[in-house]
Amino acid sequence: MKGGGDVYWMRHALALAARAEAEGEVPVGAVVVRGDELLGEGWNRPVALKDPTAHAEMLALRAAALKAGDYRLGGATLYVTLEPCPMCAAAVAHARVARLVFGAWDPRQGAAGSVFNLVTAPELNHRVDAYGGVLSEDCGAVLRKFFASRR
């Protein structure tokens, strides 16, 4: 993959997380890539948009679907700095994303292996190959710093 693969795209997602933090949002960023093409990107915006579904993953999936002209994103990879929550994990599976690559694990509500594993649930009609821990230290540090500044 052009640009260094998983690490390259995770760094891009981290840059988007910084945008979320600058807006006062929880710093999570996400990108959807198919081949060498960036299909969509997003960062957490539920406060700004007054929308509980405006997680980074959801915004990236929406942008990717618009660009692709189809909500089915077969062959695509979603990169996100934090393990998806159940809402986002279900959307990833519904969009038929091929791969999910995330940075930090979420031991409180992670749905790609930490607390739940929705992306590989046999009850769903699509299973996603999930890989956690890519740049996990960097991704986790951004979140820890953000929450420490809020205390």
Overview of the molecule:
The chain is of the alpha/beta class and 151 residues long. It is built from five helices and five strands, in the order H-E-E-H-H-E-H-E-E-H. It has helices at residues 6-22, 46-49, 56-68, 86-94, 136-150; strands at 29-34, 37-43, 77-82, 99-104, 129-132. A five-stranded mixed sheet has the order 2-1-3-4-5.
Furnish the topology, listing elements before pairings.
Elements: H1 6-22, E1 29-34, E2 37-43, H2 46-49, H3 56-68, E3 77-82, H4 86-94, E4 99-104, E5 129-132, H5 136-150
Parallel strand pairs: 3-4, 4-5
Antiparallel strand pairs: 1-2, 1-3
Supply Rg.
14 Å
Distance between the termini: 40 Å
Outline type: globular
Q: What's the quaternary structure here?
A: single chain
What structural class do you assign from the helix and strand content? alpha/beta
Average residue-wise pLDDT: 95
Number of DSSP E strands = 5
Helix fraction by DSSP (H/I, runs of at least 4):
25-40%
What is the tally of helical segments?
A: 5
Strand order of the largest sheet: 2-1-3-4-5
* H and E order: HEEHHEHEEH
Strand content: 15-25%
Main sheet makeup: 5 strands, mixed
Low-confidence region ranges: none
Short note summarizing the structure:
The chain is an alpha/beta fold and 151 residues long. It has helices at 6-22, 46-49, 56-68, 86-94, 136-150, and strands at residues 29-34, 37-43, 77-82, 99-104, 129-132.
Defining traits:
globular, 151 residues
